[in-house]
Amino acid sequence: MSDVSDWWRTAIIDMEPGRIALRGHPIEDLIGNVSFAEMIWLMVRGDRPDDAQARLFEAALVAAVDHGPQAPSIAAARMAVTCGLPLNNAMASAVNMLGDVHGGAGEQAVELYHHVENAGGEIAAALDSWIAQRGKIVPGFGHRFHTPVDPRAPRLMALVAEARDAGACEGRYSEIGTGIEAELARRKGRPIPMNIDGATAVIYAELGFAPPLARGLFCLSRSVGILAHAWEQTQQGGRNKGPTPPKYRWTYDPD
Amino acid sequence: MSDVSDWWRTAIIDMEPGRIALRGHPIEDLIGNVSFAEMIWLMVRGDRPDDAQARLFEAALVAAVDHGPQAPSIAAARMAVTCGLPLNNAMASAVNMLGDVHGGAGEQAVELYHHVENAGGEIAAALDSWIAQRGKIVPGFGHRFHTPVDPRAPRLMALVAEARDAGACEGRYSEIGTGIEAELARRKGRPIPMNIDGATAVIYAELGFAPPLARGLFCLSRSVGILAHAWEQTQQGGRNKGPTPPKYRWTYDPD
Amino acid sequence: MSDVSDWWRTAIIDMEPGRIALRGHPIEDLIGNVSFAEMIWLMVRGDRPDDAQARLFEAALVAAVDHGPQAPSIAAARMAVTCGLPLNNAMASAVNMLGDVHGGAGEQAVELYHHVENAGGEIAAALDSWIAQRGKIVPGFGHRFHTPVDPRAPRLMALVAEARDAGACEGRYSEIGTGIEAELARRKGRPIPMNIDGATAVIYAELGFAPPLARGLFCLSRSVGILAHAWEQTQQGGRNKGPTPPKYRWTYDPD
Amino acid sequence: MSDVSDWWRTAIIDMEPGRIALRGHPIEDLIGNVSFAEMIWLMVRGDRPDDAQARLFEAALVAAVDHGPQAPSIAAARMAVTCGLPLNNAMASAVNMLGDVHGGAGEQAVELYHHVENAGGEIAAALDSWIAQRGKIVPGFGHRFHTPVDPRAPRLMALVAEARDAGACEGRYSEIGTGIEAELARRKGRPIPMNIDGATAVIYAELGFAPPLARGLFCLSRSVGILAHAWEQTQQGGRNKGPTPPKYRWTYDPD
């Protein structure tokens, strides 16, 4: 019997009939007393944020909820609904899409910031070694749609500056992020501004989240937009809606 | 060209290069100014909650984040990680599990409350007609593990009472829920107390969310526990962990 | 220990170190000796098909492998690849889409044939009672794209006729299917021909598969097209490809 | 309009109303004339296998259909069913699990064989450089459960030998595989025999499939076992079955 319970173990939740404790706190003490954002922090990390940390964390979660139905994840949620899926399956179909290319950019940007930090903070050299190892797409900078600038990034960076001034974070990764932005502009001869992934990565790095959690927290955040779009599609109806109307034909391209 | 853009439409998000508006609000006005819970409400419904509504809504989201790894969803997230999946795919595998039986109880409980309301509020008769149509498992009441009572439900119901006294909701569905609880106790000769699904369904019904959103919001809430467990498993390591250790053998039961 | 192994049980597979038996057959006796289609039948049902049954079964599996990237499942697989997902996650994203509306039509068509059979075979009356209970979309008949006729259906029905003449099936459901087709034509004043779902449903019903397996087997069959498209997209590359090019804008439709 | 159709393109399928061609073949010519395994080959590659190739390919597909419910994928399918999911969602939940660690071993084994080949076939040195780059777990060899030997591997390797003798393949990767097996035994002082992933990788490499397709084809193959188990669980019933019975408690391990 010990074998079975030892096979899996957790420090997140402890239960007995009639009792649920999350990270050591009885659930009834949490309900009504912590915000949803604070609860996310507590569950993922085990401790609780102070008010300034919670405010910055919440801003990152709010910023990434949606980027419209051109994003494959949102499109997938809406298509799923027209295939007859209930909301849980539609949401899963969409979150599944948040892979290395779509939802992973924030994770990669935190890794990039750590890479620069570990390289001693010499941005140009650190960027060279990153590109040599990871390729020329620098995660967190530039946007194929938002020119000149992704409106979410400057707003988030202003909140990071406020938080730093209030002592809630050190501002080290904020400096690294703006340093990379400047270096990229210098190299390209035009601005390659920080985007949502680069800015939320600054926040998650400042707050001490490990890189994979930048992806995980993005999944939580984007799940909000996914739910909203899946529900809107549910109300609109439609059956088996593919990406384009049936009369459009994908290009057939014989080998 | 009009055909393609007419094939899909949305009132949630409007974008131009450099501009993102969610439900008509520029994203930079929302970031730092609304809580994550308020953002969820805004995205799903289009309007904004008042403070008392937001507080009650947040309590429901906090309450359902986790019920431990015996729940198939949480187990799936942890197994997925040991199969080598990153967090987005692990979370999707878990949310997908929140089907009619697992994540759908809250939705069904809202439907039950609406059914009782539409039947004129005569609980015993309405319960009979519900059972005749939907079967004998009454959603939102009783718990196979938590005896005598699911500790989340009374705490949530106390917050509903506070909200009603503050004028944030009418208390109609709270009355229906406690009425069903009393009727079930009378029929069974022992308490069949309201559980987490029954209590969050009271809140979502009081706040005017349609039944499928009780499932959708549960998915958002449980995604928090899913992420926490997936991340804990990532840190623990393990490869291809099935439900039981390899030396345990499932019962082979020849036809 | 008995509790744990009793919690789950199976008659499909029995294993010891060094030994694997599927449905009672050592795996090494099956490899090289049964076709993939026969293996599917054996695993799902426990017995083995005769040659004529296997041939008919295989035809149904071959017929449904793909219907192009306008189908939401195939589109989802391709989008998933451009989000950076490996083939297993891309395939899962796609199979998940095969819900009640997309992949469930075959299941519903088998249910319809059983309904007609149980109603005594009087087609017009049985169709009326089906529509009263299940709605006006008759599963398995008509096609929004293939006019005048879905080319897969007549070919499959010809194979059913051959199989019936060879004694491999009774032809009862084939008769019911063509009877429904005739009745629908009479009611509408124009042909509403049997489609792929209606024709594979005839085959699965003739071969004695329960209705949900018509959906399950469709998922296996369509997984082939899903894999082919996911792989083609992998080779083409592309990043974060949504349903339409970024310059197309979904219609924004303020409330 | 050209933009939209150019955004996606395919060489797999071409359709007009009333006409479906797969890889250039009208669907009605394929139905009843090609086996399901041949159809898989045609769809994925565009050409058709000869009889000896088809036989070897089919053996690999048959061999990997199931490895019991201790495998996370099969367990996930069964848990999904008890959460109320229909077969498509249960299958998707399971296939999603076939990640780098679970379903990716065959892909990695093909990569290993190519690595050895590209290194000039000097096994010991090539194995050293592989381990230096990819870590000490050598994909395709050894099994934590099947001792002394995974019964599927020798049977598959015997079929490869037959196919080579018949001229259907060259036997180059078969030699590499057995060479690695011998080198591992020499290093460890005990047999580390080829397992199912190593043996199917030999076959897929001999037949010219790219490494990612070893994973994709494994997903198709294992989908058969997934469907069988999901359907068996559907027939058994059960609600919200987690990995262990509710009375077993996962070890709580406070930080």
Characteristic key phrases:
homotetramer, 255 residues, mainly alpha, Cytochrome p450-Terp, domain 2, globular
Question: Summarize this, please?
Answer:
The structure is a homotetramer of 255-residue chains. Chain A is 58% helix and 5% strand. Chain A is built from 12 helices and 5 strands.
Describe this structure in words.
Chain A is mainly α and 255 residues long. Chain A has a domain at 66-240: Cytochrome P450-Terp, domain 2 (Cytochrome p450-Terp, domain 2), CATH 1.10.230.10. Helices cover 58% and strands 5% of the residues of chain A. Chain A is built from 12 helices and 5 strands. Chain A has helices spanning 2-7, 27-30, 36-45, 51-63, 72-82, 87-96, 105-118, 123-134, 152-165, 172-188, 196-206, 211-236; strands at 9-10, 13-16, 19-22, 25-26, 251-252. In chain A, strands 2-3-4 form a 3-stranded antiparallel β-sheet. In chain A, helix 4 (51-63) packs antiparallel against helix 11 (196-206). In chain A, 62% of the residues are buried. The mean pLDDT of chain A is 95. Chains in contact: A-B, A-C, A-D, B-C, B-D, C-D. Strand 1 of chain B pairs parallel with strand 5 of chain C.
